[in-house]
Amino acid sequence: MAHQENHYLLEITQPEAETILKRSRLAIIPTGSVEQHGPHLPCGTDHYAIMVIARRVAAELDGLLLPFSHAGVTPFHSSFAGTLTLRQETYINLLMDVAASVIKHGAKRILILNWHEGNTASINYAASQLQQQYDVRCVVAQACYIAAQLYQDEAELTHAGALEALPVLAYRPELVKLERANNPSPYEAAKEMDALRRSKTVYPLLVDIRQIAPTGWYGDLKIVNMNKAQEMVERVSKEIVKAVKEIFKRLDLDI
Ligand SMILES: [Zn+2]
What is the pTM of this model? Predict the structure, then answer.
């Protein structure tokens, strides 16, 4: 059953938060990044992208949506002003402390919703540690990869390209300035480097985004419009809800 009321801890009262947690035993941690996204998207792009999706997912799954750091782990964007990065140990400790707080109040399942690839290694480490230290199960959803999969015929997952512009447009349209997107880096070379670092077999670790995109971003923004933006947020959220429910069922975590 979907519970449509607000599930965001910063915006609800203590009794409401406690009720959600008691009912579902599920806490949701949204995570993104603060980093440059070219001249057309805000530095909070990854944060807004995950928040617009997380609000829907939390309502559908009846999970308590927690506030988390806007900043993530992104040393490879730090050659540009406007980028904040956390050390991996800071991020891991923060994630574990936030999770431990809700575990103390009854959370048995933690869903980590991520939009930023640079966070992944730290998320996996923290989630594994949480499972070893507490009676809790963690599930990770990589929202940007789900978007890439759903829209593979229309757009590639590129830094500050269409798939990043769409969720921000759906959530905070006044922050998207497509008319300023006049300096994309050369597409083919950037795509090749991205494919190399995203390989599952042999891959380099990214040092500086300029190795991929000298101007800090690349991609095509042709498909970006409000209808597509709303549709994308809807589709990605639905896909996450479906996959998470399936995993909970398989792991017998349907509390
Ligand atoms: Zn981004």
Answer: 0.96
